[in-house]
Amino acid sequence: MEKLLVIATSMIFVTAAVHAQTLSAYQSVINGQSPLYYNTLDNTLVPSTGAGTFGATAGSTFTSDYFGNANNAVNFAAASDQLSYATGGNIINGSGNTDITADHGSMSFLFETPSTLPSTTIYLFSNNDTSPNQFAATLVNGALNIKLNNKTFTAPTTGSAFPTLAGSTWYYLALTWDLNGTAAGVNGVNYYLGQAGAAGIANVGFMQRGGTGNFSSSSGVLGNGGAFVLNGHQTSLTGGSTGGAVDELATFNTELTSGQINSQFAALIIPSVPEPSAYALLGMGVLLFVGIRRFDGSRIAAKNGK
Question: Residue 13 domain-assigned?
Answer without folding.
Answer: no
